[in-house]
Amino acid sequence: MRHSPYTAPGIPVDSEEDDIETLERLTADLRRYAAGNGPTGAELAAAPLLRVVATQPDMSTLRLIGNVSGHPHCGPGNIVTSRIYAVDRCGTWARSYSRLYTIAPFSRWQQ
After folding, report:
1. Starting at the edge strand that comes first in sequence, how are the strands of the sheet with 84-87 ordered?
2. What is the mean pLDDT of the chain?
3. Which comes out higher in pLDDT, residue 27 or 58?
4. Strand 77-80 relative to strand 84-87: parallel, antiparallel, unpaired?
5. To 5 degrees, how large is the angle CA 15–CA 20–CA 21?
């Protein structure tokens, strides 16, 4: 394995290719959303369910705080999402840096 000539804060050394693939998936999703094509029914059905209880602003965006189920790496339990890049205007889904979340009905949160 070839070592990357740079380091990225928050990204483990030698996982830069994984980060690039994640960013490419995020970019493709954001382009699709901007074209008026939100997540498919299958994508929403496969997405972790998040019951949002609060938001956490950071330097340039916000993160969601809540109870998650169906997450591939954590939970069920309380989480703070990675940076949020897109939110359905009806509040039914949110796209973070790394994944799509289905937002549980009756969740209350604000931007």
Report:
1. 77-80, 62-69, 49-57, 100-103, 93-96, 84-87
2. 85
3. 27
4. unpaired
5. 100
